[in-house]
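User: Okay, second chain of the day. Same drill as before: sequence in, C-alpha cells out.
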Amino acid sequence: MVDPLSTPLTQRLGCRLPVIQTAMGWIATPALVAATSNAGAFGFLAGAVMKPAELGEAIARLKDMTPHAFGVNFHSFQASAGEIVEVILAHSDRVRAVSFGRGPDAKMIGRFRDAGILCIPTVGAVKHAEKMVALGCEMITVQGGEGGGHTGSVPTTVLLPQVLDAVTVPVVAAGGFADGRGLAAALAFGACGIAMGTRFLMTAESPVPTAPKTAYVKAGTGDIAVSTKVDGIPQRMILNSLLRRIERSTSLGMWKRAVEAGFEMKRNTGMSWGEVVGAARAMTSHGEMPLAQAMMAAAAPMLIQRAVVGGDAENGLMATGVVAGRLTDLPSCADLLARIETEARQRIAALTHREPAHAD
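Assistant: Same drill. C-alpha cells below.
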C-alpha cells in the first residue's frame, strides 16, 4: 500500500513526515531544528538573523545534533548576503534546502540547484509563486492570510488552490496549520505538505522565554491582531502594551519610530548608520515602500527580539499566526509530530474508508 504521507516533500527533502518547521528569527535555533528533524519533520535554521560566521557555527552545531538534512533561511537584502550564500553552499552535504521571502536572482538559484540545494521560497500571492518558478525554484511554500508576521489578506483555503492551479511544482501549504487534521486537509487540496511556525514556537524545545511563551498560550483569537503601523506592512501579532501604543500613535510618529528602531538596530548589530539606511533602501527596491516604513521593516526585528529573546512580553513584539488562538499546550517536538502523524493517518483513513496506513 502506498504511504499517504510519502509526498514530493518527503522524497525531495529526505524527511519522514511532510511537515516543515519554518525559520522563525531567533527561534529556529539549532536545538529546535534538531528536535524537529529528529522527530521526522524538516527544520529550517533562521540564518536571516545571523552573520556569516555565526551561521557557520550554528550549522556546525546542528550537524552534531542530528544525522538528518535540514534547511537554512536567508534574505537577499540582509547584510553580507553574499557571504551567507557561500556559507550555505560550503555545507551542501547537509543543507538540503534554502527558504526566503524576497529571494535571490536566477543566477543564485542556479548555484543552489547545481549544489543539490532546493530553493523553497515563501510567497503570499499567485504572481509571486509564478515569478519564483520562472526564476528556477522547484518547490513553493504558500502562506495564506492566517499566517504570522507579515501576511496577506487572502485565506489559505483560497490562495492554496489558486497557486496549485497556476504552477506545476510541488506546493507546501502554510498559514493556520497546527495538527494532523490540517495536514490531511492540505494533502486533499493537492499540497505536498504543510509548513508551521507558531505551532513549533509553542513547543518545549522552542527557546522563547517563559513570559512570552505564556502569552502565546494564553492568547485567544481576539488577542491577535494585524497591524500596519509597525512598519507599514500588514503584520499579525499578539496584542500587548507595545502594540497598543503603536496602534494609538499618529502617522507622524512613523519617522520617530523609524529613527528609534534604527538606533536599536545599530546598537544591537554594530551596523553603521550607513548600513542601517542601506538595508532599508534595499527593501524599498522591492516595491513602493517609503523609506521610513522600510527602516522600520529593517529594524522591527529588534522589537521582536526584545520579546522572544529578551523575554519582555509587554515591550517587545510577538509575531504569531492566528492559530495560536486555539493552541493551549507546549508539547515536545517528538510528541507533537507523533500526534500529527497519528491524526493525519486517521483522517485520511476515515475519508478513504480504509485502515490507517503505517510507514514502513
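The chain has 16 helices and twelve strands.

User: Thanks, on to the next one.
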